[in-house]
């Protein structure tokens, strides 16, 4: 991770959608809360959903999972689609912006971005270069950094110490991919379709939760309780928003 540090992207659809609007994403597209990963409740999420973002606490189990995937990436993966837009994260706290770029860039044909869109210009400029060089170019984009700062309203609080991380799940050419800027390459999670994408992405989110840390909550000096693993996880949908 570089010494360059940006504000973290909070998991608040209002803040995230202000950022998306500032970088040129039309208002009909944005972020919505996924209030539950239960299949019957996924129907309440506005459709279509083009990507799912997951925010989760960084843990030892997550680190081990990253190492496993790195070994797979080093030897190549026969199922990877080389047309996927994938970039690395080198900016401290930059995972949220990278996750949103992954969501936009891999669904750009659906979004009708204006030609002067800040994010479209960045994606067009970087589409054919390596994941590492994409990350280096992002460091130079002051307009994206300023859009992020401007997405916080006056008086709105935000933290600068980030112990959480974002990944993006996308449907690309009939496969479900996990895009994580910390990893060497995308991770394949099997087949999916337009009809089953949200359900399939929810399954991967649940797998992350199973790897997540238990949280010890002390209610008084003598007792302690264990909170559910999923209490510190947030799932968000990128796609159509309720107007």
Automatic annotation (TrEMBL):
Q: Which GO terms describe its molecular function?
A: cysteine-type deubiquitinase activity
Q: What are the residue positions of the site described as Transition state stabilizer?
A: 89
Q: Which domain of life is it from?
A: Eukaryota
- Where's the UCH catalytic domain? 5-240
Q: What class of enzyme is it?
A: hydrolase
Instruction: Kindly list the biological process annotations in GO that this record carries.
Output: protein deubiquitination; ubiquitin-dependent protein catabolic process
What Enzyme Commission number(s) apply to this enzyme? 3.4.19.12
GO cellular component terms? cytoplasm
Q: Which residues form a coiled coil?
A: none
| InterPro entries per record | Papain-like_cys_pep_sf (IPR038765), Peptidase_C12_UCH (IPR001578), Peptidase_C12_UCH_sf (IPR036959)
Catalytic site positions: 95, 165
Reaction equation(s) it catalyzes: Thiol-dependent hydrolysis of ester, thioester, amide, peptide and isopeptide bonds formed by the C-terminal Gly of ubiquitin (a 76-residue protein attached to proteins as an intracellular targeting signal)
Q: Please verify whether the record's keywords include Hydrolase.
A: yes
Q: Where is this site: Important for enzyme activity?
A: 180
Q: Which UniProt keywords apply?
A: Hydrolase, Protease, Thiol protease, Ubl conjugation pathway
Functional note: Ubiquitin-protein hydrolase is involved both in the processing of ubiquitin precursors and of ubiquitinated proteins. This enzyme is a thiol protease that recognizes and hydrolyzes a peptide bond at the C-terminal glycine of ubiquitin.
In the record, the note on similarity to other proteins reads: Belongs to the peptidase C12 family.
Q: What PANTHER family does this protein's entry cite? A: UBIQUITIN CARBOXYL-TERMINAL HYDROLASE
Q: What is this protein called?
A: Ubiquitin carboxyl-terminal hydrolase
Provide the species name. Answer: Argiope bruennichi
Organism lineage reads as: Eukaryota, Metazoa, Ecdysozoa, Arthropoda, Chelicerata
């Amino acid at each position: 991770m570089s010494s360059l540090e940006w504000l973290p992207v909070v998991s608040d659809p209002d803040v995230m959608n202000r950022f998306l609007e500032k970088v040129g994403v039309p208002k009909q597209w944005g972020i919505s809360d996924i209030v539950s990963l239960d299949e019957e409740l996924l129907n309440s999420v506005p459709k279509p959903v083009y990507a799912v973002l997951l925010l989760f606490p960084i843990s030892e189990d997550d680190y081990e999972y990253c190492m496993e995937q790195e070994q797979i990436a080093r030897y190549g993966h026969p199922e990877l689609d080389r047309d996927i837009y994938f970039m690395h994260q080198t900016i401290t706290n930059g995972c949220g912006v990278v996750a949103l770029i992954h969501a936009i860039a891999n669904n750009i044909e659906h979004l009708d971005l204006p030609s002067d869109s800040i994010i479209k210009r960045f994606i067009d400029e970087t589409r054919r270069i390596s994941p590492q060089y994409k990350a280096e170019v992002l460091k130079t984009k002051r307009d994206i950094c300023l859009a992020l700062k401007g997405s916080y309203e006056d008086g709105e609080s935000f933290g600068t110490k980030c112990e959480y991380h974002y990944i993006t799940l996308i449907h690309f050419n009939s496969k479900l991919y996990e895009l994580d800027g910390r990893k060497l390459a995308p991770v394949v999670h099997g087949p999916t379709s337009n009809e089953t994408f949200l359900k399939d992405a929810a399954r991967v989110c649940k797998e992350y939760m199973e790897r997540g840390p238990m949280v010890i909550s002390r209610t008084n000096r003598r007792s302690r309780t264990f909170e559910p693993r999923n209490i510190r996880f947030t799932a968000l949908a990128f796609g159509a928003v309720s107007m």
